[in-house]
TrEMBL record:
Domain of life: Bacteria
Chain intervals for the UniProt region annotation (Disordered): 1-40
Biased composition (Basic and acidic residues): 10-23
Name assigned to this protein: Uncharacterized protein
Listed Polar residues bias regions: 24-36
Organism of origin: Aeromicrobium wangtongii
Amino acid sequence: MKVSSYHSSNKSDPDVYHDHDNCRTGQQIPSYNKLSGTGGFPRCKQCIDKG
Ligand SMILES: [Zn+2]
């Protein structure tokens, strides 16, 4: 399902933002590292593929 943009505050995570809650990469971000917004990053490729 499409959600508002979010990204990880963890520097070791890929520098991308997500906008699907069923993105496998996005799901690996623990809630304490999850920030709303794009963080100025490009969109995650898996999220692009989901539409
Ligand atoms: Zn994603």
